[in-house]
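Recap quiz, item 2
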Amino acid sequence: MSTEFSGQALKEFLGEAEEIIEGLHLALLKIGDRTSPDDLDPELINSIFRGAHSLKGLAGMFGFNDVSELAHHMEDMLDNFRLGKIPLSDELIETIFESLEYLTLLVQGKSEDENYSIDITPVLSRIDAVLSGDNKPESNIFKQFNIEPSILNVLTEYEEHRLHENLTKGNNLFRIEVTFDLSSFDQGLAEISELLKQSGEIISTLPCFGELTERIAFQLLFGTAIGTEAVHDLVGNDAIKVTAIVSRAGTDTGAQPRPAESAEAIIDATAEDLAPAQSQADSASMRSISRTVRVDIDKLDDLMNIVGELVLSKGVFAEIAEKMKATGRDDIASSVQKATRELERKLDDLQKGVMEVRMVPIAQLFDKMLRIVRQVAKTQGKKVALDIQGADTELDKLIVEDLSDPLQHIIRNAIDHGIETPEERRRAGKPEQATICLWAFQKGNHVVIEIKDDGKGIDPEVIRAKAIKKKLVSANAELTRTDIYDLVFLSGFSTRDEVSELSGRGVGMDVVKNNIASLSGMIEIDSEVGKGTRIAITLPITLAIIKALIVQVSGTTYAVPINSVLETLMIEESSIRTIERKEVIELRQTTLPLLRLAEVFGLRSPQERASRCFVAVVGLAEKKIGIVVDDLLGQQDVVIKSLGSTLSFVQGISGAADLGNQKTILVLDVGGLMSEALRGDSNVHV
Amino acid sequence: MSYKILIAEDSSTMRSLIVSTISAMGNYQLIEAANGFEALRILPREKVDLVITDINMPDINGLELISFIKNNPNYKNTPLFIISTEGSEKDRDKGLSLGADAYLVKPFNPIELQDLVRQYLG
């Protein structure tokens, strides 16, 4: 059947499937966090069931039998769980987690290749094992309490189970009737539901036919330990009709115990004043919450490209105006300039608008990390809490996506190498449970993500010894503390074997660093033995359009992202000094290391150096260097294009940019160049 | 005049699959409700000729929606189909006894849905 629906429908499915799986993970984590079985929110369990249920139906439509079969098994298991037929256990939670891992793999695989599949029999048998556990049948309590068939008829199997649970627990059962304006009933219902949920559970919400077409009545079935009086007090409104269906003597925990017959008291009125005028305004805003559209990121990319090209065309107009001025046509020139400025303002708005659409809170990424922490800590037998802050910090969607792998790796590393076992921690006088802080915050045009653990830290001497052994540095090299920590980012520092043994993945910190660099970001590490390790990732908020400083070296132009340029200087060659074979200049009582772009890229430098040159002082995080160039050509908006995987190995370059006039130039990877320069000796060659 | 069909289903993908299946048949006006509440709001506003509903929805369930429609003199003659996932036979039987006219199992066969729509609306 999969061929009958379009590729667009398939994309929609994959998007929705991912959302469902994310939602399931979150709900499951909440269940895992509960302190006692009584804390368990039945709605939470039902939402997990509904997720598996939807996924099963959806996957079936596309002929994804593996996803559908797994979801079906999960649904069976969750159905039995929500109906109380199988008890809550660690094994149950673990099995659901494992099922979700498989689902994630399958859905991710299928987004690359529709025919992707994996063997799901291990997880299916695990589910079957959980299912074959003790099943307790429900006794027929409904007959005992004379529950009318008209009530039971509209209850789904799950709601029937909830009713059963309430009656078994000895709760009272009320029918609560409310009437609302058709335009604002959801708001009204939300308000009364909130009130009722404080003391019980709303088992079902049945809409009823009323005489007036513009109004709608609802019958809520409410299970609670409190009595009629207390229910009245709770809804706090005489206009709501409360009827006791099951009311047991002695269950009234309200202020004054009331005789059972008064439970039949009926107050008849409509809920006119429960939903005052203000709720109409609220209902309008409630509706707007669901006014979202899911958009393919490629479409946004196209849009962003068009905006970028418009920005470039605007530049062309500005140039024309300049030329006109130069040729003495001042009057037309100034009106063209005026029009260009107007265009510029509108373009700015447009650009900001499109950019905002691409921004997503980093929360979704952080939530994923919760899962990783849980999983890795469990397999390692360690106790780890994740402290998340700044989850609402926004970043470009593509950056968030590309950040997933590096972040995951850092966190795995922290748990693998950084955090001690509970016994070791106890001996070191630390709490058994370790904490990993995952904080995000905005800093100017950048977002900083900080990953900090309170584990055993990394001994700089161990790193140095290892780097010497691996011949990455000479034994007598003078290295600062920062230099030493930066060694872990060198390729070859951690060998594949070691890493895969410890982290289960064949990548080292050098790959993490390259990933971050490809996002024009920078990564720093610092550690204190016995106290823990801190890794900070600094990223630009967006990559699509940037302002750049255009520089020229040996006849070639390059773009330097302006958000990393601190200042530009014109210096005399003679003011450059050499300290330990590195060129530096004095800048306001500090020493600024220099990097000659011509040397970095192996460009032919002119026979004689000009007596003057220009320096772009760039900084990321706390570090600064000066990039020496022949000329500064000015500032310009550039549209960043990816170099693609073929050129990704070129160090010092983060991408290409369109300059308008069909000119394409390379964009410098400031973070990469800085670490090269600050480390010193090695030149990169294109 | 084209017939109006109300689709109450909380999964947007499933909704658009139903929509594309019926749109392929020709001139039907399709109104989508992402949950039971939206369906309740649409019913008095639009003169709906056919309702297609899911059972498991977050606010009110499909059974409650069916009970509302089939007990309301204004809508009780409107044909109503349930589209729900297999394994909920008990809920399906309840839906049919509440007055639902037909039942389809997800993943549904598009031809089957088209046949049913044709049968009830022509």
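Chain B touches chain A through 44 residues (CB under 8 Å).
The domain at 3-108 of chain B is CATH 3.40.50.2300 (Rossmann fold).
End of item.
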